[in-house]
Specification:
The protein has 562 residues and is of the alpha+beta class. The chain is 36% helix and 23% strand. It has helices at 2-22, 24-35, 75-86, 90-99, 113-122, 144-147, 159-163, 165-168, 208-225, 261-268, 271-274, 284-296, 338-344, 347-368, 395-401, 411-422, 458-473, 537-540, 542-555; strands at residues 36-41, 48-49, 55-68, 104-111, 127-137, 173-178, 191-194, 201-204, 229-236, 241-248, 315-317, 320-322, 386-387, 407-408, 426-428, 433-437, 443-446, 451-454, 488-498, 501-515, 522-529. Helix 13 crosses helix 17 (458-473).
């Protein structure tokens, strides 16, 4: 008998220990939750601004609606009124009010003031409101694929909003006070106020004035070429700051097509970062730069500036015939220097360079210029491009890479590589973030340029830039020429591949341009996907670069030959 009593005593003691010690904290929390009410204070999300502090993304005042179901007396009526005013499904809301085990239910967020006034007039027990923030974008569709957007709960979903969400989101606060058993506020209740901490501002390298000019130019190009899509990136070659980035078609950030997932995914994709394409003749900038640098280093397999290429022929490599876009009739493209070959965009000359340098040397430059890897841009979803592994490269592949085929790149890769070729040979990590600024306007941190690589010497870079200036003054890039300004560049026209085969009648037309040619401050890459009718980069993309550069000249008040 005594054993049984002892066992029973130990059992009761064990239960007492479990409730008081092990389960105690959880019970205290539940009791506190039952007798306390918390009204959340939603933190203001940080602004996104351009390089000069002009607002791109901000907040507008809205409200969140909460229900403490235990305090709701007439659940059916309450669900009916809430569903009508807030445009919610009555059945779903009623089920939540009657079956939810949590004390607080978030009914809706980002509700405008007019609806809150209607709800307030109903004086519903257990229903209360708190200030919230609705994200607003100053320029609607401008910069939409870069900025991205937020979800209904204020978290970043895409673009800069997603990438820097941790900096932008801030920390929510709350107001706590005691209530009775059904959640009604007690008389003389103690109120504890925990303020919200606003998110920090993200200041971008984007210059909104240049961005607006580029947007206008690309819309015009899209319409005039009847293209599938157009895109453009403008950067500062001296530090790889992204000054403008446009993908068109676009969408309105203040009217996001959230209900159509396929359309939303298509329109929100930043193709300049995430999509790859065969660059064609714009890639000859890289081949030319590799050759010039190797020649200056004394590599006897490289060609001098005065070397004469016999361009008037086709060439068979691994049973593959490689030829120029021109028929070479009447001696056209014959007896060319490297500068001439760039002017005329003659494929066989660049085939000669790639094959002569060999895969080990040529791949060294491809790697140095960032191909086959990400650039390091502070943006999610960057593609690495497509490059045949060096161990699997054949001569015919190497020959084609020399003039921009059998290789696929992203727009950001090509823009950065081209900038490094003409800026003195310096390859920086491209960046969209300029600085982080506190809510009171104090700069917390600066995002300084990062030099990743020295791709070629300053001397070689100067030679390449001079040659590319000749492309604009004398060669295929004449439609980018601006009187009184030194503009350099290279055209590109590449036939598209679909399902492993050339797609008849489908081209990507492009142009890489920069100015001033002797000390580049602005570089633009224009890509026109599947233009209809005229499709040569010289006719479709080069004039767009001219328009953009002329706008920049006006915006920055740049003087002749500055």
């Amino acid at each position: 008998m005594s054993v049984a009593i002892t066992f029973l005593f130990l059992l009761i003691f064990a239960r007492f220990f479990y409730v008081q010690v092990i389960w105690g904290k959880d019970l205290i929390y539940k009791a506190t939750d039952q007798w306390n009410r918390e009204i959340p204070i939603i933190a203001r999300r940080g602004k996104i601004t351009d390089t000069n502090g002009k607002i791109l993304a901000d907040n507008s005042l809205s409200y969140s609606v909460f229900v403490r179901s235990a305090a709701v007396v007439e659940k059916q009526k309450t669900a009916q009124i809430l569903s009508q005013i807030l445009s919610l499904n009555y059945e779903d809301l009623y089920k939540r009010l009657t079956s939810s085990r949590v004390s607080e239910i978030t009914v809706a967020r980002q509700v405008d003031k007019s609806r809150i006034e209607l709800l307030t007039a109903q004086n519903l027990l257990g229903v209360y409101f708190a200030e919230d923030n609705s994200r607003s974008y100053a320029y609607n569709d401008i910069l939409c694929q870069v900025l991205g957007f937020t979800s209904s709960d204020g978290s970043g979903v895409a673009g800069i909003e997603k990438y820097y969400n941790g900096i932008l989101k801030g920390t929510d606060g709350e107001i706590d006070y005691s209530t009775d058993i059904i959640g009604a506020e007690r008389e003389n209740a103690t109120v504890i106020y925990k303020p919200a901490q606003a998110g920090n501002e993200i200041r971008l390298t984007i210059d909104i004035n240049i961005q607006l000019a580029v947007e206008d130019a690309m819309r015009s190009a899209y319409k005039s070429s009847n293209a599938k899509a157009v895109s453009c990136i403008v950067l500062n070659p001296q530090n790889f700051d992204i000054l403008a980035m446009v993908n068109y078609p676009s969408y309105n950030l203040n009217d996001i097509p959230r209900q159509d997932t396929d359309l939303l995914n298509k329109l929100t994709r930043n193709g300049l970062v995430s999509d790859i394409y065969e660059p064609g003749s714009t890639f000859k900038i890289i081949t030319a730069a590799a050759n010039v640098e190797e020649y200056l280093q004394g590599n006897k397999k490289a060609f001098s500036q005065s070397y004469i290429y016999n361009g008037s022929r086709t060439r068979s490599v691994d049973s593959t015939t490689i030829k120029c876009w021109s028929t070479h009739a009447n001696g056209k493209h014959s007896n060319q220097t490297l500068a001439d070959a760039l002017n005329n965009s003659c494929n066989p000359c660049f085939t000669d360079i790639a094959l002569s340098l060999g895969n080990q040397t040529f791949y060294k430059y491809l790697s140095a210029f960032g191909f086959g890897n990400v650039t390091g841009l502070d943006f999610s979803g960057e593609a690495i491009g497509m490059l045949v592994p060096q161990t699997a490269i054949r001569d015919c592949d190497l020959a084609r890479i020399g003039f921009g085929q059998s290789v696929a790149v992203t727009g950001i890769q090509l823009a950065c590589a081209s900038a490094a070729a003409v800026n003195g040979g310096n390859y920086y990590a491209p960046r969209l973030l300029k600085s982080i600024v506190s809510p009171n306007g104090k700069v917390i941190s600066q995002n300084e340029p990062i030099l990743k690589n020295k791709v070629i010497s300053e001397k070689a870079s100067k030679i390449v830039a001079e040659m590319l200036e000749g492309v604009v003054t004398e060669g295929s890039g004449k439609k980018a020429y601006i009187e009184g300004f030194r503009v350099g560049g290279k055209t590109g026209t590449a036939q598209k591949f679909e399902n492993g085969k050339l797609a008849q009648g489908k081209y990507v037309s492009s142009f890489v341009g920069f100015f001033p040619a002797n000390n580049p401050e602005y570089l633009a890459l224009i890509i026109v996907d599947e233009p209809q009718g005229t499709y040569y980069g010289s006719a479709v993309a080069a004039p767009v670069a001219k328009e953009i550069f002329e706008d920049i000249i006006k915006i920055k008040n740049i003087k002749l030959n500055e």
